[in-house]
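Fold it.
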Amino acid sequence: MGVLTKADLYQSATRWAQGGVAAVLSPDEDSTDLHLADTLAAGAGLCDVDAVRVLVDEGAARVHDLISLGAVFDRDPSGALDLAREGGHSQARVVHAGGLATGAEIERALVDAVHETAAAVLEGWFALDLLVEGGRCRGVVALDPEGVRHEVRATHTLLATGGAGQLFAVTTNPAQATGDGIAMALRAGVPVADVEFMQFHPTALHHPAMPRPLLSEALRGHGALIRNSAGERFVDELLPRDKVSQAITTRMLEEGVEHEWLDATGLERFDERFPTIAASVRSIGLDPATDWLPIAPAAHHLSGGVLSDLDGATALPGLWAVGEVADVGVHGANRLASNSLLEGMVFGPRVVDALERGKDAPDATGALRAVLGGDVDIPGRPVGGEVVEPKVVEARPEDVREHLQQAMTLGAGVVRTAGSLELARQTLMVPTGDTPAVHEVRNLVTVGEALVRAALARTESRGNHWRSDHPAQDEALRVRLVHSRA
């Protein structure tokens, strides 16, 4: 087994995940049925029920697996795991580590395990495209740290490349989140769906730092309030993220301001309970005990991705996907808070188990049913529309990237219209060159074009996709919009 990564193993979106892991660990008042119901409600009709059932049923065991690997989660004075409630959850079922440094702790445990077991770890290698021969994925073409191209061949290739938050000017994602795996799949004709559903975290700290520091869902779960500058509350803080982001964005537009406020002054022992957030806000001169904290939505999590079955297999034999790059169907149109770390923890081991038992082709399960057929609750529909080829320009990749981020934020952000989406699409461009920075922009443009085209085709508002020119939900569009050459 080998791992190829364009940075080092510690540079992943997992590291930045302040939120916790949602799992039913204390069945006294909770149940997997309640967790399933909360997930389906947040997903706005587009979750695959079988995938969600796997997620909630296997979650507790995966949390205990991490603990056995050395991950340390927060506990209450009695020694029991400390469970928090977050937006969209009907019960307290979210575990955290280090206050709000859960992703960093999970990553630490997993990276240590990889270094102990992987045959090869190629850090600083940039995967450019999938190697497809005879209808099968045979590995990737990659640039080594010196910029030399290689064919890195494998019997099985697993994409775990994360999301594409860097499509937008304001994001909680690290600089490496450039949609590389989704872009490679799109270019190879592997079915990709639901990419119009970019989740915006409603309460990112409004500050020039990037990635934007998160003011976690846990603050609102413990009683923090969202206010405008006049001190008025205007949204239920524990609604799913799409509703809270939309309410904040609407109020910002009405008031002509760049941010609203999170009032956490009523929370006791703030620095002790939320040390990561306390450090972030104090670093910019704010005292959470006395100051309201400026907030604005920021691109956070892509609910769609490379369609996969319940074992992570894609429609292309030999290619597998897991985590944010994948679309197994658990998030639907809007991810429930703290289900993303859980998704990776549950479906990653399922890929390994499938490979160990010799699985070599996908099954018609999970979101992949949208293209493979079978008993399909949510059918697939080709996105359609003309693919707009981006202009090739002689410019610095960082300048083109910034231009793209501004265009996507204005045209395809929290609020969208046909006009804004078309304008964003017509401004797509890629720089010349053969460096990792150029290829990151190329990948962002590939994913951005797919997102915009799907958002144009989805003439309704559902979950994270909010068309102000089509504000109602349309039952005829309870489908997966699929990008595929098939």
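The chain has a mean pLDDT of 92.
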